[in-house]
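Q: I have 476 residues here and want to know how they pack in 3D. Can you give me a structure?
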Amino acid sequence: MSSKLKVAGWVALGAVAGALATMQLQANARSSLSPLPLEEMQQLAAVFGIVKSDYVEPVDEKKLINDAIGGMVSGLDPHSQFFDRKSFKEFREGTTGKFVGVGIEIGMEDGLVKIVSPIEGSPAFRAGLKSGDLISRIDDTAVRGLTIDQAVKKMRGEPATKVSLTIFRKAENRSFPVTIVREEIKVQSVRAKIVEPGYAWIRVSQFQERTVDDFARKLEEIYKQEPKLKGLVLDLRNDPGGLLEGAVAVSSAFLPRDVEVVSTNGQVPESKASYKASPDDYRRRSSDDPLKHLPVALKTVPLVVLVNEGSASASEIVAGALQDHHRATLMGAQTFGKGSVQTVRQLGPETALKITTARYYTPSGRSIQAKGIVPDVMLDETAEGNVFAALRMREADLEKHLANGPEEDAARLKAREEARAKLEAEFAKRAEPPKPLPEFGSTEDFPLLQALNQLKGQPVVASKTAAERKAEAKAE
């Protein structure tokens, strides 16, 4: 497959492996642990000694131990992870919605970093960077050839440090340098607007610590502009998930009080729980109910939820709860299928373990692990059909995902490769590479237009090719 096709496919997906995390920062071990296997522990110590003494060059003991821990945890499933100092810092930045950088939402286009939107008030915003600008160099490094994660790491850094970006502005057909001083950025995980009189769109791109407060504020602003709102579109496409309480709160905004939103079940007693549409289950300690000022009309306003293959974890909880309680019409594509809960247990001041502790279940008792949520109305990405759907990775495609057998893995991978080859052959016949999908919420956003038609009672162009993908997970 061409590199251009790969880039287009993965960027269209966005982040797909967001953790549904409960933040229990503790280091307490269970008292009922069985005795350690002595022979295997001796082997581990022997290997450590051999590597330490016989390897071709000296190795750091701490690194060896960290690598051993990391290998132990990564062998469990795709979402369990050992956090060293650096990765734990990055994880905390991801859940708080704060990081040090220049302040841009990005994608990739033709091998360059594309600015989707500068975050309002950020250094990039003040420097005059615009949506659609392309970044060709970061300091002395050419962007072409970098992954999007590598580009992000080069733009992040310490507060008050400088980074030089070379910008290509297509509208003006010119390149120019910009030097930006990094500072702490607060990520905007919620966007909203009135798309036309009587109808609004609100998008949640990730469930972070600030998401619920931002979500409530945006909804209040919508109702100030449209007190008699006729319909609302909740956009969860490419939302990789995040914090459990955020998913419970967003669901609670639309559901009757005290109905179940999600339940969890695992090996340890604290993993067996039911979360309801109640402030006690979603507000943070010693904080007020962030939803208390929302209008009562929000409980009954006609609602459409947009999802796709990149909707994972916490966003699947919201979609499943609203679908099971018949509160919304789900439209789009079958979701990612991440039906597990990760708990973060701090091991030391700067290290932690993120470990899968439970499966979660929708109010009707569905486990969506390795299957996902099937929308009520299947939609294509564009009016011409799906462009990148065959390229998108899902939970069932991840190595060592929960509850799957090797025969099913082989069949699924074969089908995926056949779909990939077919798509590549179609693109090879075209004179030009496929265009990136329109920005979510734009006037060219085909699924959003169909959602609005659904709310208005007008004809909807449903997909003629998309079909439900059956669960790869074995019934338990």
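Q: Anything worth noting?
A: The chain is about 30% helix and 20% strand. The longest strand covers residues 352-361.
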